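Can you give me the bound-state structure? Components:
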Amino acid sequence: MNAAGIVVEYNPFHNGHLYHVNETRRQSNADVIIAVMSGSFLQRGEPALVDKWTRTKMALHNGVDIVVELPYAFSTQKAEIFASGAIQILHHLKCQSFCFGSETGRIEPFTISADRLNEKKQALDEWVHLFMKKGSSYPVSQTLAREKIFSDDPLPLDLSKPNNILGFHYLTANNALPNPMKPMTILRKGPGYHDQKASGHIASATAIRKLLFDHKEVDDFLPDSVRSFLMEQQDIGLLHSWDLYWPLLRYRLLSIHPNDLETIYEIEEGIGPRIMNAALKSGSFQSFMEQVKTKRYTWTRLQRMMTHVLTNTTKQEMQTALKNLSFVRLLGMNGNGRSYIRLIKNEITVPLISRTAAGTPFLELDIKASRVYASAPSAPAHYTERLLNHEFSAPPILF
Amino acid sequence: MNAAGIVVEYNPFHNGHLYHVNETRRQSNADVIIAVMSGSFLQRGEPALVDKWTRTKMALHNGVDIVVELPYAFSTQKAEIFASGAIQILHHLKCQSFCFGSETGRIEPFTISADRLNEKKQALDEWVHLFMKKGSSYPVSQTLAREKIFSDDPLPLDLSKPNNILGFHYLTANNALPNPMKPMTILRKGPGYHDQKASGHIASATAIRKLLFDHKEVDDFLPDSVRSFLMEQQDIGLLHSWDLYWPLLRYRLLSIHPNDLETIYEIEEGIGPRIMNAALKSGSFQSFMEQVKTKRYTWTRLQRMMTHVLTNTTKQEMQTALKNLSFVRLLGMNGNGRSYIRLIKNEITVPLISRTAAGTPFLELDIKASRVYASAPSAPAHYTERLLNHEFSAPPILF
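Here's the bound-state model for the whole set.
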């Protein structure tokens, strides 16, 4: 059996994702589609709209054969680390290819750019460092550094587009493997990643979340099965967002010792007092973020910092976790996926975790993240208990 | 001018407290009544029903001339430390006498018992240590130790009664002063401290809180002025109790590192896993406490532990704070109180703090406790902001 991998968040699953699954199957001719999916907290430093089990069901209902978790240590990171974790997991699972959506839609610009950037890596890093020192954010510094180095002969890839950036890092991580997978890309349909407007039957996940929070119609943009999962969740009144966790984050910031705040991953020296002061003066997550934001710290970067404060993830924990991506956690699979897993079981070199318990090695951070995710103060008790129990006692979802 | 001191929590102020204030004035013939009052968290390890500013107003409306704060480091402790902090503060403020309610109502049994217990202090401590080692709680071990030592000639004071215990410790702390104040006691009217039933126009604060939470009539047991303060608070829907803080405590316990839990004041080695496990399995504070409770750990002691977990108060912070009771924080006063303060201002040897700011020396723990107190997740934003602002920018309440 032949497997193709995809890297997803499904926040929530929509028609664009369905197109991605179908195109991956068509282009790769794979027997099995494996999705590596962020768990409770996502790449932009946000809690997932709905829990990972529900998002796994969405995937399995729409053509994905196996869903595995991208661990917290990788899912809440900048593109480079996020991509490296996802690619390693797909490789652990013996995928022969992987396919990502991009603003470009052709793979050559990625392969060419990855090679050329790789050649100039050292010079590039030096320029990035310099621009950051001058006060620019990391993404802006990268753009400026690339402009400096490739001014005479520009790269064939527009690296200001978020999916192109991710794709570029998938390729770089893949090239670093002993036997790389075959990279493929499809053109993203419909509006861009950050766009809040919808067009046709495809809208970005950002746009769909906005419609959901505004209690507006989203049916056009979702497969039928996803609609019913989201309606159930809306009935409980629990679409997760930072607003839901703001009372916990604020409490934490109002009671943490300044020295302890500095042990949290991504918290740099000097920003602590600014954060604690803003927490004191802000009645909402939005106004808190507006007070903390500077040119140097992008919104996304600050959200990631706050995710780590919320989950109490220290620099030391993160260092350990980033070194140890030597396991795969199964979230769900269908019959086809089960056959594939049976087939590769003896070939794969890392533990395949299908049921957790307190103290399961590797999973400390993910278990903590799930516990915090389940602790939204406004959640009904039975909902919190269900999430907490599922994390520990449930086997992967079988479809 | 001549001042008499009282030690109070006013949780809430009721007719029994009014009687205490009036009797203190009558018996002491003092010009000024000074109340040292617990702030946000109380001796039994609970959040105060209403904030300290509102409770200060209750006191000033009912004959108290000056209200000062018993700092967090003392207000959330067993009787011995609680009493020692309160007596030191009254002494700083040049009180000539102090008066407490007791189940006995005469001062001789206290003076005699304090002297006799003082003589046998070492033997007593050894017995207490022994009984605790065998698994008895601290209060039970003390009772057993006293029975051992004074079996032939029992003390003239029933030290199983909570107000007698406190009174006894007031006397002990007072005796340790270079120039002790004159101790006085009045007979507590009406039902006992822990009683949940009311009789006549006096009911215990515990009984009144229960009636309030059950939405039952309490008017008979409260002075008119207190009634309106409580009604305002009930209108916001915010009578503070552990239930209000359970989502924060649970979140904290589900995300704290086991090693960090052991740095918290009163957390003894070995109890950490028991607490964290109970947090995972409990949907309410009540069920959490029932799961953690053992013969060794009384309900009150566990509540104090959980108060320190909630406020993130470490052993080290507490040690420092307990050593430094060299300030007095004014919460409110009337005209008479102001005259007294003007009069003694130059005589008193410690700073009199009437307005705080971040970084005010001595007040770190109290400021943190107030911030946490204000962070109840269900509180309306304007209520939280008002409490947070008051802690920092408001002068003492003038009446």
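A couple of observations. The mean pLDDT of chain A is 91. Chain A has three domains: 3-103+163-192+321-398, 117-160, 242-319.
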